[in-house]
TrEMBL record:
Keywords: Calcium, Metal-binding, Repeat. The lineage of its organism: Eukaryota, Metazoa, Chordata, Craniata, Vertebrata. It comes from the Eukaryota. Pfam families: EF-hand_7. This is CAYP2 protein. The keyword Calcium applies. The keyword Repeat applies. InterPro entries: Ca-bind, EF-hand-dom_pair, EF_Hand_1_Ca_BS, EF_hand_dom. Residues 383-418 form the EF-hand domain.
């Protein structure tokens, strides 16, 4: 005989949860009677259903709580005390978290700005647009996850080093093969004689330019470059100074060869997900400065340092059409191989790191003007720099980036920026080195306000490249709205603002700086963070401003 299943014994005891229920039957027979339909249906009910039914009957029949309830057991009292202690500890931790958030909120620039306005009694200098722009600086009060940041940075450094190594190998292959194949010694004696006396037939090229078999080619030539000669080189990373986003984000790696003082620049390009290639951007050769105090002088080792500008004539190179729009191509050195530089300095007897007196005087003029305007721009830098960029693009009718002296004076007057007349004249003499009464307004802005260091500019380019994944040079405002994340903003974490409020304030201030409200160009994106950078001294704080909302 199979005993009946007693579902009543599966319920919790009275000591554990305090609930009580009345079993269906006090006695349990050894056999399960099949002829009793009502007993069979009740035996299939769960303890919860039986207990629920018992409670319903109790409520219907007795609408009062019985007085003869059993007192709680010691086990139940112990559990209750543990529960009470846990709740008190959780409330204490919650109170501490709220106090820390309030403390961070008080340190937020946005709160200090409003307090300053109330104390000073005037708010003419700051507008609502400035306050919304400065909300982005609040990210500095909430540091980025350090462990995650270190892992991500290390992975990026490894990938960048692999790319540079691939470019180095490609450069060595190109230069060694080209040097041997195109060497004049590859020509036959008869061709050399005919070439020297002009006897080569029309349409006949010397042997070194013709297709030839292996036995007609010399493997080693007297004047050919060797791997040992090319190994004495300085590697440097550079970028194009351009308002075009596609050109400004090109990844350029250059090499200066100490053996013949020549240089070459390669571009690392990625085609799809897995295919990469290093292509020559500027062919190997000896080049001269095209602008500045060293105009006409050949480049030497002392011209390569972080922040140095390398200038080339655009017509002399096979460059993209967007780059050729300017007659002079300017490359900014953003990093160099320090170990190679130290080795070349030690082995070079002619190296002299000296600065022309005129260059030093020019820098003093720039520093003086930047010092005059820095206090003015400390809180409204975003509005001034983005507004000036928008104003310059509007009055630039020829769309070549050059404006006259009168245009710049009028722009400073519109934005209430006062520069002494003598300092402005000195500035203009420095910038207008060609005496054309025209100066590039990007160069003027960098001289007057200064600019971010290369570390910060690299972060800005990285954020923009993440948005402009198609490399079109402009980003739709819709894509920026989708990518911007305000979850880690201190005001959101403290419950003082919503994510939508922070996002809308960012989009409003960024949209004000754009000529087209539906898309953002690279120069407009860079100007926005250039203005934010003025009030931030620490690079780590600037990292938080870009990494928290963009996730780079």
């Amino acid at each position: 005989r199979v005993p009946c299943l007693d579902l009543g014994r599966l319920g919790d005891s009275d000591e554990e949860d305090g609930d009580s229920y009345i079993p269906y039957s006090g006695s349990y027979p050894h056999t399960c009677p099949l002829d009793s339909s009502s007993d069979w249906r009740m035996s299939l009910q769960t303890p919860y259903a039986q207990h629920h039914q018992a409670q319903q009957h109790s409520v219907l029949e007795q609408k009062t709580i019985p007085e003869n309830l059993p007192s709680p057991t010691d086990r139940y009292k112990l559990k209750y005390r543990q529960y009470e202690a846990d709740m008190k500890e959780e409330y204490k931790q919650y109170s501490q978290r709220i106090a820390e958030k309030k403390k961070d909120l008080l340190q937020c620039p946005e709160a200090s700005i409003k307090g300053t306005q109330l104390e000073d009694g005037h708010n003419d200098d700051l507008t609502a647009l400035d306050e919304k722009a400065l909300l982005q600086q609040c990210y500095t009060s909430k540091p980025y996850n350090m462990q995650h940041s270190i892992r991500k940075s290390e992975a990026e450094d490894v990938a960048a080093e692999r790319r540079k190594q691939a470019v180095v190998e490609q450069v060595m292959v190109d230069q060694l093969s080209r040097a041997v194949i195109s060497d004049p010694e590859q020509s036959m004696r008869a061709d050399v004689y005919k070439e020297a006396h002009g006897l080569l037939g029309l349409g006949t090229a010397p042997m070194r330019f013709r297709r030839r078999t292996l036995h007609e080619t010399k493997i080693r030539t007297k004047s050919g470059l060797t791997e040992n000669m090319l190994s004495n080189k300085l590697r440097f990373d550079s970028r194009i100074i351009s308002r075009n986003g596609r050109d400004a984000c090109r990844e350029l790696i250059g090499f200066f060869f100490a053996c013949d003082r020549s240089l070459t620049v390669y571009e690392f390009r990625q085609f799809g997900k897995n295919r990469t290639n290093a292509l020559p951007f500027i062919q190997k050769g000896v080049y001269q400065h095209q602008r500045g105090q060293k105009k006409g002088k050949a480049y030497d080792l002392s011209d390569f340092y972080i922040g140095a500008d390398l200038t080339f004539r655009s017509v002399d190179h096979n460059l993209p059409d967007s780059v050729k729009q300017s007659s002079v191509l300017t490359l900014r050195v953003i990093s160099i191989d320090e170990a190679a530089m130290d080795f070349l300095k030690a082995s070079s007897m002619e190296f002299k790191q000296e600065h022309c007196k005129q260059v030093v005087d020019d820098r003093k003029v720039f520093k003086k003007i930047q010092g005059i305007l820095r206090e003015t721009l400390s809180k409204r830098g975003v509005r001034v720099i983005t507004g000036l960029g928008k104003y310059f693009r509007h009055i630039d009718k020829n769309k070549n980036g050059f404006l006259s002296q009168a245009d710049f004076k009028e722009a400073l007057k519109v934005f209430h920026l006062e520069i002494p007349e003598g300092d402005f004249e000195s500035l203009w003499l420095i910038l207008d080195d060609s005496k054309s009464d025209k100066v590039d307004y990007g160069e003027f802005t960098r001289a007057v306000f200064g600019e971010m260091n290369e570390y910060r500019k690299a972060l800005v380019r990285k954020a923009y490249m993440k948005l402009d994944f198609n490399k079109t040079g402009s980003v739709r405002m819709v894509d920026i709205t989708k990518c911007y994340c305000a979850k880690k903003h201190p005001l959101v974490l403290a419950g003082k603002a919503t994510e939508e409020e922070i996002k809308s304030s960012f989009l409003e201030t960024l949209g004000e700086s754009c000529s087209n409200p539906n898309e953002v160009s690279y120069s407009e994106f860079e100007d926005y963070y250039e203005g934010l950078s003025i009030g931030i001294m620490d690079d780590d704080d600037f990292v938080n401003i870009l990494r928290n909302p963009w996730g780079i």
